[in-house]
């Protein structure tokens, strides 16, 4: 028994934010460090 | 039980691959990221009144005959705010599997109003249970514990071009998605899907990881991420410069002149061509490398996100704690 889940490729959150004029605000107001996902306690 | 774990939602900023799951009886559908870089399943709930939730599907436990509530709460603090909520049990439909008695988070607050624009509702984590917030059993562990899949592994194929065609396969491997043979790499630390990389070279020259380093294979991160300094070197070598959008712009013509960047893992070379590490969108190009700050004590760490997985069909083997890699077909 093996099961496949199809993934759909869609516009990214970054694209949506750009198109709604919100990306600059997001980047200015949030420290952008994708590494902290892997070090929760440090973050 | 409330257990804070902090993940930044930034990793999901460039995510493009999403799947649909159903939760409850009858199933309520949600669009989720299948994320090998985390271990919890959570979706917005009707108890969430954040701005972000108004634009997403919200789980209503009163409309599910199989829902069981708990007194446990969940808090996953993102760099941009916290997803807080309660934990409950219900049946989760994933690709034809009825994953009964699955624990999941029902969010009451969402990490940041900007999530209003997110193309996904929630996250389905596929990393090890050891990093799961509140000790919640991850979806794939629950599937395996209940004997729902025949092999204790799952595999990921990410299509380069089409909107469709990408697949997460639970309990099996499909050889039509790759060429040659799968090379197996032992997991170095069971938590994330973490492996050891021998070196990273460009045009035959070492550019990072010169004495070996660690890497996490993460479907929940779109780019190739590494230490800020090493990535800054790569950005300058490939001629990328920062834009006001936070991305690194690069001339599209570089695609024809730049060399492969080669990750050597367990003695095998995994070249990533410029067609992969230079992202093209609406006529402009940007670098697929992203610098990240991590605690120095952790040593050099790289994140092999979707850019890498689009090149290499990946098997996440829990039975043998190893990752299988082969060039996509």
Q: How are the SSEs ordered, and which strands pair?
A:
The complex is a heterodimer of chains A (43) and B (329).
Chain A (H helix, E strand, L loop, with lengths): L2 E7 L3 H7 L3 H7 L14
Chain B lengths: L3 E3 L10 E7 L4 E8 L5 E4 L23 E11 L2 E14 L2 E13 L12 E4 L13 H7 L7 E5 L8 E5 L12 E4 L2 E2 L2 E5 L1 E4 L2 E4 L4 E5 L6 E4 H11 L2 E2 L5 E3 L10 E5 L2 E5 L1 H4 E4 L2 E4 L1 E4 L8 E4 L1 H4 L2 E6 L4 E6 L2
Structure description:
The complex is a heterodimer of chains A (43) and B (329). The mean pLDDT of chain A is 83. Chain A contains 2 helices and 1 strand. The longest helix of chain A is centred in the middle third of the chain and has 7 residues. In chain B, the strands form 5 sheets. A 6-stranded mixed beta barrel of chain B has the order 2-3-8-4-7-6. In chain B, strands 12-13-16-25-17-24 form a 6-stranded mixed beta sheet. The N terminus of chain B is likely disordered. Chain B is globular. The interface between A and B is large, with 39 and 70 residues. Strand 1 of chain A pairs antiparallel with strand 2 of chain B, so a sheet runs across the interface.
Give the helix level of chain B as a range of percent: under 10%
Instruction: Work out the number of β strands of chain A.
Output: 1
Number of helices of chain A: 2
Shape of chain B: globular
In summary, what is this structure?
Chain A is of the alpha+beta class and 43 residues long. Chain A has helices spanning 13-19, 23-29; one strand at 3-9. The longest helix of chain A is centred in the middle third of the chain and has 7 residues, at 13-19.
Structural key phrases:
heterodimer; A: 43 residues; 2 helices; B: 329 residues; mainly beta; 6-stranded mixed barrel; 6-stranded mixed β-sheet; 4 helices; 8% helix; 44% strand; globular
């Amino acid at each position: 028994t093996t099961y496949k889940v199809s993934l759909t490729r869609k516009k990214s959150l970054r694209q949506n934010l750009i198109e709604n004029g919100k990306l600059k605000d997001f980047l200015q107001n949030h420290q952008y460090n994708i590494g902290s996902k892997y070090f929760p306690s440090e973050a | 039980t409330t257990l804070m774990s902090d993940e930044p939602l930034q990793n999901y900023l460039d995510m493009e691959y999403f799947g649909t799951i159903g939760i409850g009886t009858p199933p309520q559908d949600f669009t989720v990221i299948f994320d090998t870089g985390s271990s919890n399943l959570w979706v917005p709930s009707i108890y969430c009144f954040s701005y972000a939730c108004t634009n997403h599907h919200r789980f209503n436990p009163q409309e599910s005959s199989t829902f069981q509530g708990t007194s446990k709460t969940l808090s996953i603090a993102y760099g941009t705010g916290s997803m807080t909520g309660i934990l409950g049990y219900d049946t989760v439909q994933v690709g034809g599997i009825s994953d009964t008695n699955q624990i999941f988070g029902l969010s009451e607050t969402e990490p940041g109003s900007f999530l209003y624009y997110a193309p996904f509702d929630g996250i389905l984590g596929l990393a090890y249970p050891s990093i799961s917030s509140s000790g919640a059993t991850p979806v794939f562990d629950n599937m395996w514990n209940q004997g729902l899949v025949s092999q204790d592994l799952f595999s990921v194929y990410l299509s380069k071009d089409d909107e469709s065609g990408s697949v997460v396969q639970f309990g099996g491997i499909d050889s039509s998605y790759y060429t040659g043979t799968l090379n197996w790499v032992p997991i170095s630390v069971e938590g994330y899907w973490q492996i050891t990389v021998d070196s990273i070279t460009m045009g035959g020259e070492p550019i990072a990881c010169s004495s070996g380093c660690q890497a996490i294979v993460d479907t929940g991160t779109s780019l190739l991420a590494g230490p800020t300094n090493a990535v800054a070197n790569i950005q300058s070598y490939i001629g990328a410069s920062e834009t006001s959008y936070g991305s690194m712009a690069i001339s599209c013509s570089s695609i024809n002149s730049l060399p492969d960047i080669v990750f050597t893992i367990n003695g095998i070379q995994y070249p990533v061509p410029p067609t992969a590490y230079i992202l093209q969108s609406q006529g402009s190009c940007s670098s697929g490398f992203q610098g990240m700050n991590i605690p120095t004590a952790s040593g050099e760490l790289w994140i092999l996100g979707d850019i890498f997985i689009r090149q290499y069909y990946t098997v996440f083997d829990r039975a043998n704690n190893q990752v299988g890699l082969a060039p996509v077909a």
